[in-house]
Amino acid sequence: MPSFTWERAATLSQDFRIFNLLKKPMLSKLVVEKVWKKPGQGVVKINFNTTANGRKMSFGLVAKDHDGFVLGGRASVMDKNVQAKWAELHVLEESISFARTKNWLRLEFESDYVSLMNRLTRMKADFSTMGHRIQEILKLLDPFSNVSFVWPLRCYNKAADYLCDWAIVNNCTKDFNMDYPLEIHDIILRDAIN
């Protein structure tokens, strides 16, 4: 009886290639599209991110229109020693300020910091210091006609990620319009093509 069970298991394993890493699996892997996702018509999407290095924090933000064209952005470094959640919240505020100076009305903010995006999309009574600060920042959105918050996969935020690293390495601040830095050109181009 045990040899029959073993033979049957061996046959099934070979038929279905279960736990056999030498052969191609019968079920294909789920393919995830890893490119920037375009917002709706007339919406400006602002991707933002932060990074920290010791007592310095840097951030990058890139604004694109519904066709994927870069409308502007900012990279900056600051002498701040803060936790990641406070750094991301600061960059959200910078992103809102940046959008206000450009007079954009329909916005989609995108960050790969899950905790912040969850707090922004699932607002409920939050009496913490962070919740209070979020409420203050959300009041800055009053002039805009349409605002949404999106949590993408990390691979969608490549340009903002690169700007963070670039700012901290070069220890500088840079604002740009459609004349974005050559350093992110390839990243932007790859996203626009795909």
TrEMBL record:
<dbReference type="GO" id="GO:0003676">
    <property type="term" value="F:nucleic acid binding"/>
</dbReference>
<dbReference type="InterPro" id="IPR012337">
    <property type="entry name" value="RNaseH-like_sf"/>
</dbReference>
<dbReference type="InterPro" id="IPR052929">
    <property type="entry name" value="RNase_H-like_EbsB-rel"/>
</dbReference>
<dbReference type="InterPro" id="IPR036397">
    <property type="entry name" value="RNaseH_sf"/>
</dbReference>
<dbReference type="InterPro" id="IPR044730">
    <property type="entry name" value="RNase_H-like_dom_plant"/>
</dbReference>
<protein>
    <recommendedName>
        <fullName>RNase H type-1 domain-containing protein</fullName>
    </recommendedName>
</protein>
<feature type="domain" description="RNase H type-1">
    <location>
        <begin position="55"/>
        <end position="167"/>
    </location>
</feature>
<dbReference type="GO" id="GO:0004523">
    <property type="term" value="F:RNA-DNA hybrid ribonuclease activity"/>
</dbReference>
<dbReference type="Pfam" id="PF13456">
    <property type="entry name" value="RVT_3"/>
</dbReference>
<dbReference type="InterPro" id="IPR002156">
    <property type="entry name" value="RNaseH_domain"/>
</dbReference>
